[in-house]
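Weekly sync notes, structure subgroup
Attendees: PM, AL, DS (notes)

Item 1: joint prediction request from the bench team. They want all two components modeled as one assembly rather than separately. Inputs as received:
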Amino acid sequence: MLKKRIIPCLDIRDGRTVKGVNFVNIRDAGDAVELARLYAEQGADELVFLDITATIEKRKTFARLVERIAAEINIPFMVGGGIATVEDVGLLLRAGADKVSINSAAVKNPSLIRHLADAFGSQCVVLAIDTDYVDGEWRVFTHGGRKQTSLETMAWAREAQRLGAGEILLTAIPNDGAKQGFAVELTAGVREQLSIPVIASGGAGRVEHFLEVFQRGRADAALAASIFHFGEIGIPQLKHYLKEKKVAIR
Amino acid sequence: MIAIVKYNAGNIRSVMNALERLGARYMLTDDETALRKADKVIFPGVGEASTAMAYLRQRGLDKILTTLEQPFLGICLGMQLMCAFSEENDTAGLGIFSETVKLFPSTGIVPHMGWNDFRTVRGPLFAGIGAGENMYYVHSYYVETGSETSAVCEYLLPFSAALQKDNYYGVQFHPEKSAGSGQKLLRNFLEL
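Output from the run, pasted for the record:
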């Protein structure tokens, strides 16, 4: 049976992990490669590296890091952050990334999704949607959640699929960081409308939240950052819990 | 020396990385002599079937790849190209395997993307790998099951996770991205 995926997300600045990481058995918590290796060994199903500097000169630093990750890590990984062109994506895929996520650039220019799918295949094109609930509707936000757009989330997700996106990374802004659970209804709603996988992001605080988003939210994968980085939930512990609850887990 | 077949289908980097992690020596080549002399041949691939086949025929690689005698491993699209026929743009394949490549039904999420286990596994590639182990898949087309099927995976329907005929092996999943289980499979191949 196809398994639900658990995906830790690492924020990267200048080639180093950003958030304080609370691990005793790691020499350099700022070294993304070392942290990635640890997560892979613990059973992470996939990894996400988000380049939060994302300026042109820093892009090369990031690409070099991607090369090191690809050399060391034997599970799939996605990279994202400020990616705007077919050239950006080509650089990162050649460096060894399996998937690339795009966000603001796709809102500005939706045909970018089609260009990327044609050039590299849908399987490596992930559309990231940051969404917030405004006036009774889930709206798409860009620029790290700072800028509201006129797009409605369900409609944008459907359009992205039509244009050739291979997966949706759905982050609920009100849930993100609150540790009160994923946006389960939103995830289920988006998942219902699509025939491509949905990664739920934002809100993980307890193991029960993952169960909820997999069962009621029907998410194909769930992403979290700080609870893993600070050791609040261990990946082995989370997977053990989900297996006991009969969720299909590797 | 492992020869990786050089052609126009991508994702060769991750295979090279996996071989480096295993300490294997490899070269990327489309040269007939180098391919025939190699101890093992790996035929990776991500992309579209008809474009890849047209390229292989144009370079005369179709004739070479079908007449090799050492252990040969096709990965993902590589395995699909080793089959007789693909529904992907109605493409005639290399015909090493007799099975047909079909598009997954639209009743589920396509591509089949993520980790999946096996219904059955057999053969030397799977030594020490049980049916309960998971491998990483990304594909929209699948190979039907047949007499050459050596492992069966189930997604929407049962399909060939692996094929074997004589010295020719194919796997639908990506062993190079399948953590320890994939590493075991690659090591088994290197030790054939």
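Discussion: The first helix of chain A runs from residue 32 to 42.
Action: AL to compare against the crosslinking data before next sync.
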